[in-house]
Automatic annotation (TrEMBL):
Gene source species: Phragmitibacter flavus
Cytoplasm listed as a keyword: no
Top-rank taxon: Bacteria
Ranges in coiled-coil conformation: none
InterPro entries, per the entry: AAA+_ATPase, AAA_GajA/Old/RecF-like, ATPase_AAA_core, Bact_Antivir_Def_Nuclease, P-loop_NTPase, TOPRIM_OLD
Keywords of this entry: ATP-binding, Nucleotide-binding
Domain AAA+ ATPase: 24-375
Name used for this protein in its record: ATP-binding cassette domain-containing protein
GO MF annotation: an example: ATP hydrolysis activity
Length: 641
């Protein structure tokens, strides 16, 4: 059994247009900016199936209020639908996965997997009175309306959502969970043999204590005083007792303790930190699910000594964890991922986690991520990450690894795709010089601007994350110049941008490019309008060393024309006509070779930038970077925050 789909209509920040969210078989990560609907998704499931019935109550805040609403309506309403797939139906493994009470399975089309659809519908009147009902949606009536049947309480309890919210009273939440989860196990245990042994032992202990002279005297004094006040035949004798006189009373006071402790042998769980209590909650849930599996696998729970009817474990469990990074150190997040993956590896459990922590996404497949976003109408929507098809193995692998390596892009207000490490070092300083610091504005740099960039553009566009791309023009290098422009043009065409039908010159054609070419400037301008910019005429390393020669240690007075060996080192063996570079620019080839071919690019940039203040950078900033920064600045104004 698996939760396949959740549909939300007019629930919290989800508006009147129904939003459908799909889920993975094991763990699904939900990410997105603040206020984008992540919590609403978990609370929707909690309203339907929370393991604590008290948390299923519908609240006034659950009803969506439109941003342009002037007068409240006569009645507000919302619906939540959850589809559970039952692939085990008709198989031997399905005995425990499909409870007998699920008599409302549906098959919409031949060949589909059987499913059960639940619908929580709620209304609120003008006085705040709320009515809600949980129903099965079993098909269609003759008039086309949905055919629904009420869900009995016993059916509802077959699914349990264990919800760990980000904002909570840890003491209350963990206390109630400890009592309910552990208490259910303890009450289901067959204590018959242990109870007899305990009664004998406690009688011996009581007799030993009562033999103490001080205890005996105190007990006698109490009994004498009581007899003077109470003359009835009932309750006429009073005596001191120590502890519970029966095992049943003893186990009512169970707790979880930890050792060793700093100042004592053990401490109670109530003394743990908030983060440790969160870990305890997840441990309890995982343990309870595991015990439930073992008990159901034995059908009667005899080997465990558990009464299955008393334990009554849910048939299906959903672990819903909200922003665990709020109370836990980063190194715990990987452990949580691992525990959830193990717990949810079977067909009777799933995990849904919301997070702002990129570290939690480094081990999560991009396909398992759902991206929540808030639109201009203040309504939420959810998108799934779509990778290139596996038939395009190279592109699929590149994009997948790129997203795993750069999870920060999911949380960006703006993404800049670059080609190398130089951009990561230089661009933050350039943006700061133009008074647009990257961190303060939620701008993320990612070294993903090379091949298969069209897939990244599509992903970012689908997620509505604005983006720009900075490529090297590579003039006169193999397939550089016009070849790079053609590459950008073709990539844009793949994502649906109208680039016209013009045929561009070949990369090694004699057609000029750049400042000497109106046609070249036209294309560079067109691509810039689409968010694609070029480090000209070669790459960012060359542009920066030419713009700030003194800081990069260049002595322009001693520069000479490069020899053929240097030209090939800079442009490559299969380069085009090097005369496309002016004599002045070519004089920089020797220093380029020394700094960026023989030397370390990061070292050269770090040392050079340390010699420049922000005003100096701004004064001599190459034009292509001014245009890039201006484009980013304008796009940020369109981002809804």
């Amino acid at each position: 059994m698996k939760l396949a789909t959740l549909r939300l209509t007019n629930f919290q920040c989800f508006g009147p247009e129904t939003q459908e969210i799909s889920f993975e078989d094991s763990t699904t990560m939900i990410i997105g900016p603040n206020g984008s609907g992540k919590t609403a998704i978990l609370q929707a499931l909690s309203r339907m199936f929370d393991a604590n019935p008290g948390r299923r109550s519908v609240k006034a805040d659950d009803f969506h209020v439109g941003i342009d609403e002037e007068e409240p309506p006569e009645e507000r309403s919302f619906t939540i639908e959850a589809d559970f797939l039952l692939p085990e139906a008709g198989t031997d493994s399905g005995a425990n996965a499909i409870p007998p009470c699920f008599n409302h399975m549906r098959l919409d089309e031949a060949g589909e997997v059987l499913k059960v659809r639940f619908r929580l519908a709620a209304t609120m009147g003008p006085n705040g009175d709320i009515a809600d009902s949980l129903s099965y949606v079993v098909g269609k009536e003759g008039n086309g309306e949905d055919k629904i049947r009420g869900v009995p309480r016993t059916d509802r309890n077959n699914i349990a959502v264990y919800y760990l919210p980000a904002r909570r009273d840890p003491n209350d939440h963990i206390r109630s969970s400890t009592t309910s989860l552990l208490g259910r196990i303890v009450r289901a245990v067959d204590w018959q043999k242990e109870a007899e042994d305990y009664k004998e032992s406690v009688s011996e202990l009581q007799a030993l204590i009562e033999a103490n002279p001080a205890v005996k005297a105190t007990s006698k004094s109490i009994s004498k005083s009581w007899a003077a006040l109470h003359k009835g035949s009932h309750f006429k004798d009073a005596a001191i007792t120590f502890g519970a006189d029966s095992l049943e009373k003893l186990i009512q006071n169970f707790s979880v303790q930890f050792n060793p402790a700093h100042a004592s042998k053990t401490i109670d769980y109530s003394l743990l930190s908030d983060g440790q209590k969160s870990l305890l909650y997840l441990s309890l849930v995982s343990a309870y699910i595991e015990i439930g599996r073992k008990a159901m696998a034995q059908e009667t729970g005899e080997e465990l000594g558990i009464d299955l009817d008393k334990l009554n474990p849910p048939v299906f469990s959903i672990i819903a964890v909200e922003e665990p990074e709020n109370s836990l150190s980063p190194h715990y997040l990987g452990r949580i991922n691992k525990l959830l993956a193990k717990t949810c590896s079977a067909t009777d459990a799933q995990a849904i986690v919301t997070t702002h922590a990129p570290s939690m996404l480094r081990r999560i497949e991009p396909e398992h991520i759902r991206f929540a976003r808030l639109g201009t109408e203040r309504t939420a929507s959810v998108k799934q990450i779509e990778l290139p098809p596996e038939t395009e193995m190279d592109a699929h692998k590149f994009v997948r690894e790129g997203l795993l390596s750069n999870p920060e892009i999911y949380f960006a207000r703006m993404v800049i795709l670059g080609e190398g490490a130089s951009e990561d070092i230089v661009l933050p300083k350039l943006f700061e010089a133009r008074k647009l610091p990257l961190d303060e504005n939620g701008i993320v740099l990612a070294q993903l601007g090379g091949r298969h960039v069209n897939y990244l553009w599509k992903i970012l566009s689908d997620l509505r994350i604005p983006h720009a791309t900075l490529l090297d023009l590579d003039l006169a290098r193999y397939h550089g110049g016009w070849g790079r422009i053609k590459y950008a043009k073709d990539q844009l065409a793949k994502v649906g941008v109208d680039v016209g039908k013009a045929t561009l010159p070949k990369w090694n054609a004699s057609s000029p490019l750049g400042k000497d070419s109106d046609y070249g400037l036209k294309w560079l301008g067109f691509l810039g309008d689409k968010g694609v910019f070029f480090s000209q005429p070669l790459d960012l390393d060359f542009s920066m060393s030419q713009a700030f020669p003194e800081s990069y240690g260049l002595d322009t007075r001693d520069q000479e024309q490069p020899d053929d060996v240097t030209i090939k080192s800079v442009l490559g063996n299969s380069h085009a006509d090097d005369t496309w570079y002016s004599k002045t620019l070519k004089k920089g080839f020797d220093d380029y070779h020394r700094l960026f071919k023989v030397g370390s690019k990061p070292t050269a940039h770090i040392e050079a930038l340390s010699n420049l203040d922000l005003d100096e950078i701004d004064a001599d900033l190459p034009e292509q970077y001014r245009e890039l920064i201006a484009y980013v600045s304008e796009k940020l104004k369109e981002v809804f925050e």
